Amino acid sequence: xxxxxxxxxxxxxxxxxxxxxxxxxxxxxxxxxxxxxxxxxxxxxxxxxxxxxxxxxxxxxxxxxxxxxxxxxxxxxxxxxxxxxxxxxxxxxxxxxxxxxxxxxxxxxxxxxxxxxxxxxxxxxxxxxxxxxxxxxxxxxxxxxxxxxxxxxxxxxxxxxxxxxxxxxxxxxxxxxxxxxxxxxxxxxxxxxxxxxxxxxxxxxxxxxxxxxxxxxxxxxxxxxxxxxxxxxxxxxxxxxxxxxxxxxxxxxxxx
Length: 256
Known about the structure:
Structural class: alpha/beta
Number of domains: 2
CATH superfamily of the largest domain: Glutaconate Coenzyme A-transferase
Strand content: 25-35%
Distance between the termini: 52 Å
């Protein structure tokens, strides 16, 4: 039951090239930065990453992107990373853009064992109709386009028939998350907004690795305070005080 491993390097050692990896965080808030750096040093490439965004240039997933280690991104938002834009438009990176709520639900469904679900989000757009550029060719033409998805009509609330698009769940080979508090059994607590995509990513990964800012003994986290049960977590890495304090801000805004 003790899931604590000695280091981040040991925790990510078996992530192979071409693996799919769900990564928690929103912007730079709650990202597993220590595990990402360990994965960068480990050398795996051709990674297929599922994350709300791709960090920023030079930090978070931006480190893996800058090193050319990511082959495909499934994301909602990419606006803070210029290298992401460059790689996508030049045909070096395949990108699946997903509405943010749909991405969250696809991860949650994967963790819950639900293969697919219908949602109104994206109906009448290229999300449902297909044709979005997943990969560009070097000359700027579309090399790979998204396929059309199944659309059905439902009237779940009696307000009238409405179209819904079928979205498939997401599961990944691995998941990397960061928690404020965790115990040796893998039960995790996320402080405030760091809860974001972390519990969803943890549930979707077949092997989930959690870096925790504060490691406590089993029983010290009240059951009602657990945000992610240990059943979803296979490995725990305890951060040093310096690692736990190393947090970045995407865009600092201050008053005059």
